[in-house]
Structure to design on (265 residues):
């Protein structure tokens, strides 16, 4: 797993000194890989022991292993010639990075959860709400009993009425969107399964969830003009959708619904 993904995954464990180290590492990737731990200590004003503790928090065995991960994340010299090349590079980087978080076993578990649900509710606010609506549009056409909710009051109402046969599928990049967290807690208390797609682990939302899918954040592209918060989520949705459609019944349902839309829509 690359350095940025480890930072996301173990974000809740990081101290102020750790964040000083991170800020320096991300700003000086190409030069830091040649520094000793003593050199880095002087640069960031954190003791060598503090840097070692930082490496351990990110599940590196030692400083050298962390430097190796840093070296592999150093971008190639600007091969990008125009904007389309730049955006392609960002998409490719985010998708490759998100793939590191995904396992076949977890996808299978999530598919099983969706398969056994009487009712699935996809929820999210803002850009996360757009993803919730997209996934619902796909599952509805397969004949899965689902709906998307992007209103905070409606989330609370629906989650209050959920039971052990239902699934609440939450999208929240920060994992701190209060209406989503509250809805997840209520649904969980009612016995419903909770699945979460988010950027950060060890948040209140992920502690509630039965399954957590971590996705890479666009913020590590270090380009304020690149603001796509959805590409990583859509990558996961495509994996889940493709896997769901391996079910013959759902594939047949999708063909039927699309045929009706094409005829009468």
């Amino acid at each position: 797993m690359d350095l940025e993904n480890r930072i996301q995954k173990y974000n809740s464990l990081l101290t102020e000194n750790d964040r000083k180290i991170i800020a320096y590492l991300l700003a000086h990737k190409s030069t830091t890989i040649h520094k000793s731990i003593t050199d880095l200590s002087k640069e960031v004003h954190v003791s060598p022991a503090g840097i070692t503790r930082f490496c351990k928090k990110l599940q590196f065995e030692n400083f050298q292993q962390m430097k190796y991960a840093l070296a592999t994340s150093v971008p190639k010299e600007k091969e990008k010639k125009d904007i389309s090349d730049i955006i392609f590079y960002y998409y490719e980087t985010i998708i490759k990075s998100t793939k590191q978080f995904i396992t076949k076993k977890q996808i299978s578990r999530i598919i099983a959860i969706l398969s056994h649900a009487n009712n699935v509710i996809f929820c999210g606010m803002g850009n996360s709400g757009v993803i919730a609506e997209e996934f619902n549009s796909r599952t509805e056409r397969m004949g899965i009993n689902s709906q998307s909710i992007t209103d905070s009051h409606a989330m609370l109402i629906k989650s209050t009425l959920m039971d052990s046969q239902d699934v609440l599928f939450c999208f929240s990049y920060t994992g701190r969107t209060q209406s989503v967290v509250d809805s997840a807690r209520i649904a969980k208390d009612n016995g419903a399964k909770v699945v979460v797609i988010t950027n950060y682990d060890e948040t209140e939302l992920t502690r509630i969830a039965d399954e957590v899918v971590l996705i890479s954040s666009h913020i590590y592209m270090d380009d304020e003009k690149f603001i796509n918060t959805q590409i990583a989520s859509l990558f996961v949705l495509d994996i889940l959708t493709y896997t769901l459609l391996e079910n013959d019944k759902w594939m047949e349902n999708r063909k039927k619904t699309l045929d009706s839309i094409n005829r009468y829509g």
